[in-house]
């Protein structure tokens, strides 16, 4: 025991003396390994191109889980397993369809000539179908909830079109998303409250293209569940203008429905700690994606970065002091059941989680790490800035976490962190068919893994 | 005079009291205008898609100059003009061609079967043509100048292939560019010194595609000028392997030549200063591009950002105290004649330039502003960080400038600054056919203009 104590003292002294050098050297080794021999990009290619969409309950989900657990093993996990959880099983159920009927003035007479135009739409996640005949109704344009309230007597039997614009003036695009997101989440029920039979929402995006962006809606059980779709931005602009010119009637067919809950899994890989195996550091992203895209940035990126950190630590022969868990969470998009299950089991087993970090903001160039914890923990986190900043996360900021690790923070008070990549391109592709492998840059993806690995290395070495 | 003095004192007091608020409010107005009503993106579309490539001396150059001066006027310049300078006139002269001849073992016998493979190459800028028959010679692989020296007795009459790799471990890709760039610049003459008759250089890039990247080479007049091309990365990997397997002979045809110097122009727009019209702030990018691409990031982005700042200040009714010059420089890529001319005329006229800032690192998301000046000036620059950082340039760093404003700094000791966008994607497309409009993100482009405009606003208001 005395020998151990002396060894510890000696260790601490050495640590103080050479810590900065050793740490920066280790982080450089990690970075070089990822940037030179990285597998994240090719793994992402496989996930997106060979498996593709993987919404909870889908066959893509099953394939992705198997891919994930196999890859965790091949990447050097001491053990890797599937943690079962029940997941919702929403299906789109068919092809979404929307056609606008309107009229234009004839050139020589005062007659109006009827016209039709297909609209590029996508049914919102969790939304109900229109029934096989679809719905057909004139469209009431509202640019905000305030306008809905003002027009509440006009929407009965109609389709409400929320044309609330993504606010371009926010520098972080997540602020614009939070601002506009309420129309997708609460819009359908708020319109149904006044008797609307369908809803169209302007996509939550500032893209220059016309791809519609899906995402979960939430029905308020007090009102009728009505079909709800998102519309591409160019079509939204057109629809808004045309409603004001001639009025527009839209035929909408959607087929969304919930099948019974089914079995899904978190995919977990682990490197066992050599000194403090009971102290667990979790790093992860979510494995599910919407069904209309490859889910490359959301959140294939977070998954392959997670596995890349595992592969790299193993490739470098790094022996963690603490246990590091690499988790691909199930069902972030429309249920959060994976994150809930992970926290539930951690609590039930009395596990000690010292940090959870998530990458779920796209595989873009890293700019910051966010952190949620006590002031002392935050101070320690901040002290590592000189070691991490050279790799891209030049800012260590207060506030950070992720949808999937939130339950762990709430249940066990686990400090949580997030990789905050640049936000400018994210909502161009978020939940849209353009969220594909080709939109991901290899080095940006890899650097995200580098910065998270650096933080994990430091927390593993020094605790929090 | 006394009245003026009192007014100045009053002005200073007001400035101290409300400065931060006023400044942050002004910068927010600038940002909102650019992000909401910005024209940079559509201007870039016109420049890249309607005009396209615009190497010095080309018809594209002439069209771009006219576009630039017209747009300066339409964007609100008090005056806009063309500043004449002689520019070099290198032309590619035809289609670059390269074909490899090699052999593979027959499956059943020991015979070797001859094979041919086209290589994706592009002649280096300023390079000489091969003559109509081309050159045909076996290829000597060297991975560095050290290897060239070791093999110097083997290269006579041969083609030297510099397969020096872009170093992936640098976080800033410009470091990798500086490191590898010497092979493009000095490689041909160093090979010619030992009798080589042609040179192939691995493209200065870490792209995942096979597009070759051109750029200027510099012949040493002591040695023969020999044809020189860059090769795409996948073909470079193949060529390197195949040389080691069977040896490779390459037929190379290039047609580069210099025509007599011709007339080009810097495009200059100006907002006259209301208080200190003799103090000049210059902001610019370069209008020329290589002939094999649209020059969207290099440097169409810098040009449209420059004009966007002019448009925005005018749209907001901002009255500058100092004179602001908006400059699209001529001939950055293979001569720097525009930058030299601008400095020369400034010196000849005894102009007082207080700051020059350039955007020539791509239209990517802004991360930093770089600055070169005295310590006092740098301290003043640094003090503005809280005002600028919210818009993306979270770091104000020492060292900054640009190729086109370098002469002004050298001649008149003008402090200089640079917009430093994220570097990860730049060398994917730099000088390659993939440097097109579609590779530019609208908001990233606009935010670059916002951050430069913020600095210009502050220097205009407070001097340097």
Report on this model:
Two copies of one chain form a homodimer. Chain A contains 13 helices and 16 strands. In chain A, about 40% of the residues lie in helices and about 25% in strands. Chain A has two domains: about 270 residues, Zn peptidases (Aminopeptidase, 3-Layer(aba) Sandwich), CATH 3.40.630; about 160 residues, Glucose Oxidase, domain 1 (3-Layer(bba) Sandwich). In chain A, the strands form two sheets. Chain A has an eight-stranded mixed β-sheet with strand order 1-10-12-11-13-16-14-15, sandwiched between helices. The first copy, chain A, has an eight-stranded mixed β-sheet with strand order 3-2-9-5-6-7-8-4. At the A-B interface, α1 and α13 of A face α1 and α14 of B.
Question: Which chains have the largest interface?
Answer: A-B, 27 and 27 residues
Helix content of chain A: 25-40%
- Helix-strand topology string of chain A: HHHEEEEEHEHEEHEEEHEHEEHHEHEHH
CATH class of the largest domain in chain A: Alpha Beta
Shape of chain A: elongated
Beta fraction of chain A: 25-35%
Gross CATH architecture of the largest domain in chain A: 3-Layer(aba) Sandwich
What is the name of the CATH topology of the largest domain in chain A?
Aminopeptidase
Determine the CATH superfamily of the largest domain in chain A: Zn peptidases
Individual helix count of chain A: 13
Sequence stretches where pLDDT stays below 50 over 5 or more residues of chain A? none
Structural class estimated from helices and strands of chain A: alpha/beta
Strand order of the largest sheet of chain A: 1-10-12-11-13-16-14-15
Major sheet of chain A, described briefly?
8 strands, mixed
**What is the distance, rounded to the nearest whole angstrom, between the alpha carbons of the first and last residues of chain A?**
25 Å
- How many structural domains in the coordinates of chain A? 2
Q: Give the oligomer, counting copies of the same chain as homo and different chains as hetero.
A: homodimer
